[in-house]
Amino acid sequence: MGVAGTLGLVGPCYAQDRRLPHLEQRGGATQLIVDGAPYLILGGETANSSTSDLTYMEPIWPRLKAMHLNTVLVPVAWETIEPDEGRFDWRNLDGLLEQARRNDMRLVLLWFGSWKNTFSSYVPAWVKRDQVRFARVKLSDGRGTERLTPFSAASRDADARAFAKLMGHLRAVDGERHTVLMVQVENEVGNIPQARDHSPAAERAFASPVPSTLMQYLAHNRTRLNRDLRSAWENAGGLMGGSWQQVFGSGSMTDSLFMAWHYATFVEAVTAAGKAQYKLPMFTNAALIRPNYEPGQYNSGGPLPHALDIWKAGAPSLDFLSPDIYFDDFGNWASQYTRPGNPLFVPEARGGPAGAANALYAFGSLHAIGFSPFGIDGAASPPAAGDASIGVGTGSVDDLAIAGLYARLAPLTPLLVQKQAEGKVSTIIMEGAAQRTGRLHIGDYIVNMVRAEGLEGQIDANSRVAAMFLQTGPYAFTVVGSGDAVITFTADTPGPATVGLESIDELVLHEGRLKRGRRLNGDENGQGQVLRLRRSDAAEGRVHEVKLYRYD
Fold it and tell me: I need a labelling partner for 235 at 20 to 30 A (CA). Which of 337, 426, 516, 542 fits?
């Protein structure tokens, strides 16, 4: 295979053992296939250290089940599985597998190897103590940091050996059960508090020519590169060789791109070693940039939007790159990770009503394979006095919002993944006070949305409101909402000018299934004028089936 085949933007080849969980292109969507069928990760990620104690986790699983999660993202720390060099202890991992299976849950493993949010806090003690063999990132004044340098072959090889052992053990104990669906390799890598590493090995690499493999990738994909990356390269002259500063300029962006290449190639070695043992889908995640922050103030070198092409070139064994999104402009960030060869998966995000709206946008408009609020074990309040037919408990607002959404999406998953593939699902979202109205084109219609009064009788101008539309016929839609909104419809094609509501039927959750409820053709929809969505739809397990018609 030539350079064009190995360096294109189409991403990794998804052809592999189809009995294993894998990614597959189906129509217009890349989907996660588990046991032969598309699978949506209705997920949540535990706090970093929760899973280190199986006793702590024991009561958490039923609570997560009551929140209607089907998948939990759980860390597996290098220090836990290899406490002494060459001696592996699988008791914690095997215990997590047993607990997940007992509660009918799937897992995504998070490999806390060399880095967790730039720091090397989860490496074994024998790595921490040997700073000669396992070199650290250095500051420009020569001081050390609590971070392994990506320029250390010893660290890379030790990490890769441990990860390969992990994946080999996982294949042996889970290769037939498929409890584990995917694996995240490292966590939020990058360099802080400076834009790049100043260790001797890093300084030598920075003065050396940009690797030819990367230059070939950039040349082959020039017209498809991230705009900021391409601008940095072309503003410096568009050279096909030279040092990092000669090729990309002398700014801090160059430091970030330099670190991105070396983190990516380190992660590639670890990923390839693991896949040689057990070829599950693998990815790594990015901590995003706060407004006006410079490299070093954020995780410089991580798989951020401007560096995605660097990572694609340096770590081809990764199946995709994922954003951890806590910022308000969710749609903007998520869209930057939705590109050919890179399906969207959000492993960390805010929960609560905002998270529920964001999840609808990810699944509907961006065809995401999964969504996962962080710290879900803290949000999982004990299921108690909620409506037993709906089963979302009476916990916190965060608990109810995500639980109510997942409860409704679970029975809709076969329809949702079908409509993702057909390109017949989309979501309208209003993200902040500046957005007073929303518009969405779907089928032959335009959806118009405004915020509505809540139960308190007031409109919350800052609320995040979303509605996902699944088109089930030329004029028929299944609608899942989050928040208080009023929706009207207008025509988007020639014909009679006015759009009316032929009918609105509610579907209500009962024992895990959606059952037809009331027909809402009176005051509830303004006598056929509007579709009203309520925040209470989540707790009450309500979805709407809408049919439209047109008249002059």
Answer: 337
